[in-house]
Amino acid sequence: MMNSFLRTGGLAVALFACASLFAATHTERFTRDFPLGIGGSLWIENPVGDVEVIGVEGSTLSVSVTKNVNAPDATSLGEGREQTQVYMGGDGKAFVVRTVVGAPPGAKWKSNVSYSIRVPRVAQVHIVAAVGERIRVAGISSAVTVKNFSADITLENIAGAVTVDTTNGDIHFITDARPAAAVQLSTINGGIEVQVNPDSNLDWIAQSISGDVRTNFPVKGRFSGNGFRGLVNGIGGPTIATTAVMGNIFMLKRGGRQDEIKSLRAVIENSGGPTIFKKTAIETPLVQGNFIYPASADIVSFNIGEIRGFANIATAAGQVNLGTVMGDVTVRSGGGPFDFGAVFGVINAHTDAGEVNVGNAYKGGEISTSGGTLQVTFSGGPLTLQNGGGDIVVRHAASSVSAETRSGDLSITLDPNSRSQRITAKTTKGNVFLAVGQRFGADVEATVLTSNDEANPIHADFNGLTIKRDQFNGKTRIRATGKIGGGGEKVELYSEEGEIRITQR
Amino acid sequence: MNHLSDQELMRIVQAGDLSPASEIYDRYSGRIYNFAFRFLKNAEAAEDAVQEVFVKMIKYANQFHGDAKLSTWLFSITANWCRDYLRKADNKSKETEDVLISLPAPLEHGPDRALEQREDELRVQRALQALTPEQREAILLSRYQGLSYAEIAQIAGCSEGAVKTRVFRAMETLKKALTTETRGGDRWLNAVQ
Amino acid sequence: MAECSAMRESFPLLLTESLDARSRELTHQHIESCSECGAEWLATKETWRLMEALPELTPPPRMRQRFLAEIGVEEKPVESNILSFPKRTWARWLSQAAAVVIVAGGSYLYGHRTQPVRLAPQQATLNSIQPVSIAESRVVKSSALSPNIEGRPDIENVQFIDTNPNDDEVSLSFDITQHMTVTGNRSDKSMVQLMAYVMQNEDKAQPSTTRAIDIVKQTYANSHQPEPEIAGAVARVLRNDEHEGVRIKAVDTLKTLPTATSETREALIAALKNDPNPAVRIKAVDALAKIAASGQLDQAAVDTLRQKAMQDDENLYVRTKAAEALKKLNP
C-alpha cells in the first residue's frame, strides 16, 4: 500500500517534471567565426534581446548566440524555435547578423536572442535593436551607431564617431581617452551619462525640457531655449551633443569626484540667468491662504482641491486643475489644459494650448486659449472669452458675454430670467447659437458672411428682424437687425461660413 | 468614355455615377497589380490589393482632389494597403515563399533560355524581398512605375530626400545581390540556426 | 569622398533622366573623372538593366468581374437604372421629390445585402418608400434599409433620439425629401452607415458636422461593439474638416471609440504632425497613447511621437505628452 502510494506519487512527480520541462526555457547556444577585413562593417539587427560587441585585435569576427524560447507546451515550443531564426552572412567587407522573429498574434511562446560578439576593433558597428535589457559596445576604434527602443546602452572606449538614438533607454558613454570624434546621444525618456578623460576638451550641447544638466567639469556656455551649449575645459575638442528630452544629463570626469558635481541649472539660477525646465507636479487638497507659484520656466502641473485665498500661477507647461478658489485666479501657461471648479473671484487665465473648463465663474473674468475647447458652465460677472481655434460654450450666463473664436462654434445660453445683457459673439468659421429667456429684450445685429449665395443662415424665434443681403469682398453678407422683446442691450452676433440661431426658451 | 481624362472620370464618380469605374480599372489595374505583386511577392494578396484599392477609390471618391494625379492617389492607397498587409504578422510566412511566375517562353528561344529567364526573374524578385519595405516601395515606384521622387514622397509620406536615400540604398543592395551573386544562390544571408 | 556619395545617390535619377541639365552634366563629368564612381555607375546601370527580368503581369480577368460586382456595376451598365442624388442647396430641397436616399424593405429582402439598391426606372413599382409630399413624416426600421447610400443626398435637420440609454436602440430623424425617422440598433449596418454619412454630409447652408459628430460620439463612444465604419468616418472628418472646433471634436471622439483601424491611426498621426491647432495635437497624442496602451500602435506612430518629443519648436506640453506616451509603450 505504502509502496504503491509512493510509486504513484513518484509517477505524478515525474509527469509534473515532464510538463514543467516543456514549460521551461529551451536554450540553444552556438558560436560561428568569420573573416572580416580592415575597414569592414558589422550590422546587427536584433528585435528581441541583448547585444554585446567587443573589439579585439585581428581580423576574425566571432559571433556567440544564445537563443531562448519559452513555451507552455511542446507544439508551441517547436513553433517558437522555428519562428525565431538567426541569419548571418556577408563578405569580407560587410557582415550582417540578424534575428528574425515571426511571432503570430496570440502566440503562446516567447523568444529572445542575445549576442556576444568579438569583432576586429577597426570595424564599424551598427546595431538596431528594439527591446532588450542591455546593449554594450566596447573597444571599437571606428564608428558606432545604435538605434534602440528600450534597452540601457553602454558604450565604452569608442574612439570613432558615435550616434545613439533610443526612446526609453538610458545611455552611458564612458571613455578613458579624450574624445576626438563627434558624439551624438539622444533619448526621450531616459537619462544620459558621459564620463570622459578629465583633460578632454569638448564642445558640449545639452538639451532637455524637463531634466537637469549636471557636471563636475569647468564649463563655460549659455542656455538658450531648452538647451545649453558651452565648452568643457576649453576650445579645440569635438562636438558632443546630448539630448535627453525628459531625463537628466551628466557630463563627468572619468574617476572624478562625486561631490564636485554641480547642477548647471542651479548655478545659472543663482547668477540670475535663464533656467532650464524641470518637471514637477504640485498636488494638495487644501491651501489655507493665497497660492502663488511665481513666473518660472518649469513644466509644472497643479492639482489643488481648494484655495482659501487667491491663486497666481505661471508655468511653462502643464495641467492646472483647481477645485474651489475663494479669491481671484490668475494663471498663465505655455501649454496645457485648465480645469477650474468654482471661482469666487475674478478669473484671468490664458493657455497657449489646450482646453479650458470652468464650472462656476461667479465674478466672470477673461479666459483665453490659443487652441482648444473653452467651456464655462456658469458665469455671474462680465465674461470675455477668446479662442485661437475651437468651440466656445457658455451654458448659463447671468451677465454680459464677449466671445470670439477663430474657428469653431459659439454657443451661449443666457439666464432664463435675464431681461437684457450685452452679448458679443464672433466666429470666423463656424456657427453661433444664442438661447435667451422669455423676457429677454435686445437690439440685435446678426451678420453672416458666406460663399453660398443661396444660403438663408439666420434663424430667430422672434419677429421684428429685418434681413438685408449684399455683396461684401466677393461673398454674400446677410444681416438681420432689429429689436426683440421691445429692445435692450446690444446683441452682436457674427459668423463666417456658418449659421446663426437665436432661440427662445 | 475612354476619351475622358482621369479627372473627368473621377468627377463623374464623385457625382454618384459609377459607370466610369470599369474604364478607370482598365487604365490602372495592371500597374497596381504588378506593383502589389512585386511588393508582396504573393499573387493572392496582389489580387486582394487591387480589389481593395479600387473599391476604396469608389468609396472615398470624394477625397480625391482634381488637382492631384489619380495615379499618385491610387498608388498611395495601394502602398498603404501593402504596408498594412506586411505589418500583419500572419502574412510574414507568406512573404518568404518563392513564387515562380509561369509565363510561356517566347517561341524563338529554346527551353534553356526560358529557364535562364525564370532564374533571372527569381533572382530579382528575391533581391527585392531582401530590401526593407520602404526601400522596396521606393524602388518599385521609381524603376517600374516611372514615378518621380516628388510623387513617391507623397505616396510614402516622407521627404523627397528620404526617397532619394531609399532608392539609392535599394540600388546598393540590389547591385550586390544581382551583380556579384552567382546564379542560382542567395549567398548574402544564410540561415545558420 | 562626400562628393562621390552625393554623386552616387544621383545615379538612379540619371537613369530615369530626372536630373536637370546642370546636375546631369556635373554627374557625367564626375563619372568620367573618378574611376571608382565610373565603376559604380556601370554596376548601377547593369543592375537597372537586370531588373528588367521581371515580367509585366496581366491581372486575371476574374479580378475585373469581382470589382465590378462588388460596386454593383454591370459590364454594360444601363445608366437610366441608376438614380443618383444631385447635390442640392437647401432652398431647392422642397422641390426634390423623386430621389430617395435609402431604399427599403422589398428589394433588401430580396437579397441585395451587399449590393447597392438601384431604383428601377418606374419608381411606382417599389412598395416601400414612395416619393411623398414634404409634409409627410415616416418612421422606418433601420433593419429594413439598404446599408448602401446611393449618390450624395443632402440630409438636414438631423436629430438624435436615444429614448432608453440602457439599450442599444437609437433613432435618427432628418429631412430628406420628407421627414424621416430611422430607428434601430446602433450596431445595425444601416444605422452605422447612416451615422457615418450624417457626419460627412457637407451642407453649406446648414452646417451639421458639429452636431453629427456629437451624435456619433454619444452613440458609439465606449461602446463594446467596434464599428470600423464609424471610426473611418470620424478619421476622415479629422483629416479634412477646415473647422478647428470640429477637428477637436473628431479627435476627441476617435479617442473614445473602441476601434483603432489603420485609417484612424494614420489620421491621428497626420493630425499630430500637421494640425495647426495645438489642442488637436494634444488630443492626438492622448488618443495615440490610448491605442499604444492597447498594444495596437505601429512604427509610424512611434516615430511621429518621437519626432514630436524631440521637436524644438513644438509646444512644451505637446512634447511632454508625446514623451509620456512613449514611456508607456511596450513593443
Helix content of chain A: under 10%
Count of individual beta strands of chain B: 1
Which term fits the overall shape of chain B?
A: globular
Mean pLDDT of chain B: 77
Largest sheet of chain A: 12 strands, mixed
Cα-based radius of gyration of chain A, to the nearest Å: 34 Å
> What is the residue-averaged pLDDT of chain A?
87
In the CATH hierarchy, the architecture of one domain in chain B is Orthogonal Bundle
Question: How is the biggest beta sheet of chain B arranged?
Answer: none
Q: In oligomeric terms, what are we looking at?
A: heterotrimer
CATH C-level class of one domain in chain B = Mainly Alpha
| CATH homologous superfamily designation of one domain in chain B | RNA polymerase sigma factor, region 2, helix turn helix motif
**Number of discrete domains of chain A:** 2
Q: Provide the spatial order of strands within the biggest beta sheet of chain A.
A: 24-26-28-30-32-34-36-38-44-40-43-42
Envelope shape of chain A: elongated
Tally of helical runs of chain A = 3
Order of SSEs of chain B, N→C?
HHHHHHHHHE
How large a portion of the residues of chain B is in β-strands, by DSSP E?
Answer: under 5%
Low-confidence stretches of chain A: 1-20, 272-277
- Helicity range of chain B: 55-70%
Task: Give a topology summary.
The complex is a heterotrimer of chains A (505), B (193) and C (331).
Chain A: H1 2-23, E1 25-35, E2 41-48, E3 51-56, E4 60-70, H2 74-83, E5 84-90, E6 94-101, E7 110-120, E8 124-131, E9 134-138, E10 144-148, E11 152-156, E12 162-166, E13 171-174, E14 183-187, E15 192-196, E16 202-207, E17 213-215, E18 219-224, E19 227-232, E20 239-244, E21 249-253, E22 262-263, H3 264-270, E23 280-287, E24 291-293, E25 300-307, E26 311-315, E27 320-325, E28 329-333, E29 338-343, E30 347-351, E31 356-361, E32 365-369, E33 374-379, E34 383-387, E35 392-397, E36 401-405, E37 410-414, E38 423-427, E39 432-436, E40 442-450, E41 458-460, E42 466-472, E43 475-484, E44 489-496, E45 500-504
Parallel strand pairs in A: 2-6, 2-8, 3-7, 3-9, 8-10, 9-11, 10-12, 11-13, 12-14, 13-15, 14-20, 15-21, 16-20, 17-21, 23-25, 24-26, 25-27, 26-28, 27-29, 28-30, 29-31, 30-32, 31-33, 32-34, 33-35, 34-36, 35-37, 36-38, 37-39, 38-44, 39-45, 40-44, 41-45
Antiparallel strand pairs in A: 1-4, 4-7, 5-6, 16-19, 17-22, 18-19, 40-43, 42-43
Chain B: H1 6-14, H2 21-40, H3 43-59, H4 70-87, H5 92-95, H6 111-129, H7 133-144, H8 149-156, H9 160-180, E1 190-191
Chain C: H1 2-15, H2 21-33, H3 35-50, H4 61-71, H5 105-109, E1 137-141, E2 156-161, E3 169-175, E4 179-185, H6 189-200, H7 209-220, H8 228-240, H9 244-256, H10 262-274, H11 278-293, H12 299-310, H13 316-328
Parallel strand pairs in C: 1-4
Antiparallel strand pairs in C: 2-3, 3-4
Helix pairs in contact in C: 1-2, 1-3, 2-3, 6-7, 6-8, 7-9, 8-9, 8-10, 9-11, 10-11, 10-12, 11-13, 12-13
